[in-house]
Structures are given as C-alpha cells and as structure tokens.
Write a structure and sequence with these properties.
Helix content is 0%, strand content 54%. The protein has no helices and eleven strands. The strands form two sheets. Strands 2, 4, 5, 6, 9, 10 and 11 form a seven-stranded mixed beta sheet that branches. A four-stranded antiparallel beta sheet has the order 1-3-8-7, with no helix packed on it. The N and C termini lie far apart (40 Å). The relative contact order is 0.32.
Length: 128
C-alpha cells in the first residue's frame, strides 16, 4: 500500500537551514504531483510547495508566497523521493511539515482535499 515517510525535521536556530525528505512507496511516483504542507498548532494545514514532472520533460513547481526565495522543492524520481530545502528559517516556520501526493490534474493542487495520500509529518522547530 501507499506510504509517504517524512524525515529531516528538528530544532534549528533562526536563519538556519534544514532539508526535509519524503520517501514514497506503493505508487507510480512520476505520475503524481508531490507537495509539502505545514500545520501549526490550532491552525489549518497550509500549502508550502509542490512539484510535478510534466510530460516527462521538465519540472513544474509552485510555492506559497511566504516561502518564495527561501524554500526549494525538488524530486528524484529514480529514488521516489521528494525534498524540501528550507533556508533562512524564521520562528514562524515552526510547524509539522507533511508530505502529500496527488494524482495529476490540469493545475497544481494547493488545497489539502486535492491530495490523495499523506505522510505522518515531521516537526520543525525554529528558535528565536
């Protein structure tokens, strides 16, 4: 069955960097949009970034405004893994980060209900 397993979270100081990883199994990885969401305590789950291998030729990426210029999403189809490089971390980035997979569609999905599979999440804590 489908599994998405996140790793790489932890405690980091303001201005530091982390790279999150999500290892996928049980699905045709290259046929899915892969994404990262975050959820802070008491808040809704929010879109962070997504990446699609479009027509087997190039990557299409999308980012939330709050992370543009700081975070980079990438994927390695051969390893069935998606990454999120987070630079210049701020205390407001503190959240549980979730990996998600969505079947391909015409537009990049940015809402939680548009995704078919989810990982268990990994905690990112940024100290001030």
């Amino acid at each position: 069955q489908v599994q998405l397993v996140e790793s790489g979270g932890g405690l980091i100081q303001t201005g530091g960097s982390l790279r999150l990883s999500c290892a996928a199994s049980g699905l045709s990885f290259s046929s899915y949009t892969m994404a990262w969401f975050l959820q802070a305590p008491g808040k809704e789950r929010e879109f962070v970034a997504a990446i699609t291998w479009s027509a087997g030729r190039t990557y299409y990426v999308d980012y939330a405004d709050s992370v543009k210029g700081r975070f980079t999403i990438s994927r390695d189809n051969a390893k069935n893994t998606v990454y999120l490089r987070m630079n210049s971390l701020k205390p407001e980035d503190k959240a549980v980060y979730y990996c998600a997979a969505a079947r391909l569609r015409s537009r990049t999905p940015t809402l939680s209900y548009e995704y078919d599979y989810w990982g268990q999440g990994t905690q990112v804590t940024v100290s001030s």
